[in-house]
Fold:
Amino acid sequence: MKLLKNAILFILLALIVDVGRYFFIPDISRLARTNPGKTAFMEYREEEWRDQGRDMTIKQRWVPLKKVSPSLVKAVLVSEDNNFWHHEGFDLEAIEGAVEKNIAAGEFKFGASTISQQLAKNLFLSPSKNPVRKLKEAILTWRLENTLSKRRILELYVNVAEWGDGIFGIDEAARRYYGVRASQLTASQSAKLAASLPNPVLYPPTGSSRFVRVRSGHIYAIMLRRGLVVPDYREVMTTPDTPVAQSPDSVVVGVPERLIQEAALPDSTEVAPRGDGDIKDEPPQGDEGDKNQSGN
Structure:
């Protein structure tokens, strides 16, 4: 019995150390001025390709947020994190709604991850859904929100998000799917890219999936209803850029280009909770796959 107790205590201590170290490492502050190199999620994909015997490489282009179409930014926020400007890393209202849906479904099917949580997972963790990983994600999310600006979190997210098989970063995705730079994406293209985020490998934005077609239609309708610019968006997007150093294994796209003009529509402060009936949080049942950004 004593041996069993000691074993349990040892396991608990190891667990505390394993989770607790994320309060101190990695160094989050460097992300304020340095773009990350290969992320944990990229390494996970590479290992997966090796196991499958596939000769694949990561394709990514870094681009500053000011060179990303405002339509894309708005579409991603509508799709992934309606309350991004207002929460501190965790959307409690969305979490409560997800818990209720999971209880009703009798399984862990719906998630409520914010963009900050998704970024923490993509940068440093695996797509596993186990509780220990979620604890680590929560710690890293708290640190990201307390160290980086919302604008920087969003800039990192659109550049490390997976947008297709081997495609990472919005500029690479824009060029691959539509033959344009990230700054040139239209509202319709942006809605389709955002709609594919739950699993872009299964549901590519230019594919024939009904899931992407219906979801992008909802996103586009909400974008039209709200207008392109809301006060929070205007304030953050006009903040001066912080000089950013580039990691050796990243690619910078720095071609000067004219930004899409802000739509001359009235500002709207409308904020709808995620999963309010306009946007479905999950792909159709049975199409699990590895959730890319909004999965938990």
User: Anything to note?
Assistant: The two ends are 37 Å apart (CA to CA). The first strand starts at residue 59 and ends at 60.
